[in-house]
Amino acid sequence: MVSSSLKSPVNALFATVFAVVLLSPAPAAAQSKGKANVDKIPAKVMSALTARFPNPEIHKWSKEKENKIVLYDIEFRQSGQNLEADISEDGTIQNWEKEIAANELPAAVRQAVSAKYPKASIKTVMAMTDVKDGKDAMAGYEVVLRNPRGKDVEVTVAPDGKILEDSGRKK
Fold it and tell me: pTM of the prediction?
């Protein structure tokens, strides 16, 4: 029998260990920052994401419809790098993007952007990769610029320097 002087410390230790185990989150394949609410992302989508990008820290996601296909647009960080992936409901990765430094842009892309927006500064650059038949193919670059008036403009440029989309284009 345990003496009454040992009951209190033993009970306290047991209660502390029990509380730590009970309150500790279970390890997860994907971590969430803020209000990402990853529990609402379908299992097939999460499986595809974590198979390609182990241990993503999901910051934001949305469900969208493009060309009659439901996509989950997931923004996350992995190994200190910002990434984004579009994954269909069935778990197929359609495309993904990773943030790169402006000095990593191909010369043709840098020249096209600076010719179109000579006084703008580059804010962020995402290298875009399309996934076709399970294979990655470079699609281009999303470049977010800040013009001299402080307005952000997003330009999508093909690897050869052709401007594909331009949010600052006058209509």
Answer: 0.75
Domain range annotation of the chain: 29-96, 101-171
The answer to whether domain 29-96 has CATH 3.10.450.40 is yes
How many C-beta neighbours within 10 Å does residue 85 have?
25
Note the pLDDT tens digit of each residue in 110-133.
999 999 999 999 999 999 999 999
Q: Between 2.30.30, 3.10.450, 2.60.40, 3.30.420, what CATH number should domain 101-171 receive?
A: 3.10.450
95-114 burial by CB neighbour count: b if 16+ within 10 A, else e?
Answer: bbbbeeeeeebbeebbebbe
Per the structure block, which two tokens stand in for 108? 């043709």
